[in-house]
Amino acid sequence: MGTIRTPADDATLPNATHILVSNSSGKDSTATLLLATEQHPLENISSVFCDTGNEHPLVYEYLRYLEDAIRVPIKVLRQDFTGWWWHRHGYVRDKWPEKLRKGGTGRWAWNAPKEVDPGEKPAKPLDIYTTQQIGHWKWKPAQRPMSDIEADDIVARTLAVFDKGPTGNPYLDMCIIKGRFPSRTRQFCTEFLKTKPATEYALELIEQYGAIESWQGVRADESRNRANLAEREDVGGGLTIVRPIHKWTAEMVFEQHRKHGIKPNPLYSMGMGRVGCMPCINASKDEVLEISKRFPEHFDRIEEWELLVGEASKRRNATFFPSPGDNDTAMERGNVRQVIKWSKTSRGGNQYDFIRQDDSPACSSSYGLCE
Ligand code: SF4
């Protein structure tokens, strides 16, 4: 088993600080966890994985393997949306009837990475009910005021979804409550499914241990955002963030696995370039194609989710990947089947222009909770 420490070895190590390693089940977080075992007694280390409910089954299997092999407990957190669910149920019942009759105003949304200067917002378009794009600004269409019959129908269909109660799948419950899927510009999945539960757990540990170090397996060469992160940050309140493999290359990460006799997540050897949601909303064209060939059942599930989330949406449609269509055509032009079809083409790359064409990390979480 390589160089995993035993309790006897631990007698030689410094103690006191509790180390919490963020775990995505990917190669970087495993390498970070292994590094922690080299530098700290095992009883001072724990690890946390945030289960989105949109994971490949091999991820759970790998976490069990890792826990057994490294002998560090991995806490699995699943966000519970029950409270939000019933709050939303009340909101739809009490507020939607009037809102839908009244309609909604459209708005320009910035559709580019934060570091790009947005400049001045364009003037309101003449046709406020149709999606439009000027540079990186995208017009989110206004909602037409509805007739009483239309509004009552939408409220009844949405309440029928909520009356059944939460599904228990965090990702799906979150999207039903929001009436939409997250997108690159509104990436609330990271916040609700990963950052929030992980932060709450870290606070619990701070209460228990007085202070902790949160170790995050992010590397500078993954993206510009990650390159700008500090290797060590004293956040205060008993929390210090440490990014011990910030300067490591991918090769060093795999070498760390070899050194300890630990297998990387098997999804890498099945053609996946990264490990995270299956699929991630930010999947690249190639990843969509690869997943559709190897794990088509995951897209079958997404297809069912699109219908369910669409039922709970004011617009009556919801697509997992950003759709090039307007409110009326979005589902026909952008549902997951259309995106898979497009992923098989060699051209037509700007049809779904939000889908990644580069190889930057899919998830913007700087916590190392998504790879
Ligand atoms: S950004 Fe992707 S990997 Fe991260 S939580 Fe959202 S869907 Fe999952």
In the CATH hierarchy, the third-tier topology of the domain at 7-80 and 189-270 is known as Rossmann fold
* Largest sheet report: 6 strands, mixed
Helix content: 40-55%
Number of helices: 13
- In terms of DSSP E residues, the strand content is 5-15%
Ligands bound, unique: iron/sulfur cluster
Spell the H/E element sequence.
Answer: HEHEHEHEEEHHHEHEEHHHHH
From the N-terminal CA to the C-terminal CA, the straight-line distance is 26 Å
Could you say which overall geometry the principal axes of the C-alpha atoms support? globular
Task: Reconstruct the topology from this structure.
Blueprint: H1 7-10, E1 18-23, H2 27-39, E2 45-50, H3 57-70, E3 74-77, H4 82-102, E4 107-110, E5 132-134, E6 137-140, H5 148-163, H6 170-178, H7 188-209, E7 212-215, H8 224-227, E8 232-236, E9 239-242, H9 250-260, H10 285-294, H11 296-311, H12 330-334, H13 336-343
Parallel strand pairs: 1-2, 1-7, 2-3, 7-9
Antiparallel strand pairs: 4-6, 5-6, 8-9
Helix pairs in contact: 2-9, 4-5, 6-11, 10-11, 10-13
Bound molecules: iron/sulfur cluster (SF4).
Iron/sulfur cluster binds at residues 52, 182, 187, 189-190, 193-194, 276-277, 280-282, 362-363, 370.
Can you walk through the features of this model?
The structure is a single chain. With 371 residues, this protein is α/β, with parallel strands linked by helices. Among the domains are: 7-80 and 189-270, HUPs (Rossmann fold); 279-359, no CATH class. Helix content is 41%, strand content 11%. It contains 13 helices and nine strands. The chain has helices at residues 7-10, 27-39, 57-70, 82-102, 148-163, 170-178, 188-209, 224-227, 250-260, 285-294, 296-311, 330-334, 336-343, and strands at 18-23, 45-50, 74-77, 107-110, 132-134, 137-140, 212-215, 232-236, 239-242. The strands form two sheets. Strands 3-2-1-7-9-8 form a six-stranded mixed β-sheet, sandwiched between helices. A hairpin with a 2-residue loop joins strand 8 and strand 9 (239-242). Helix 4 (82-102) runs antiparallel to helix 5 (148-163), helix 10 (285-294) packs across helix 11 and helix 10 crosses helix 13. Iron/sulfur cluster (SF4) binds next to helix 7.
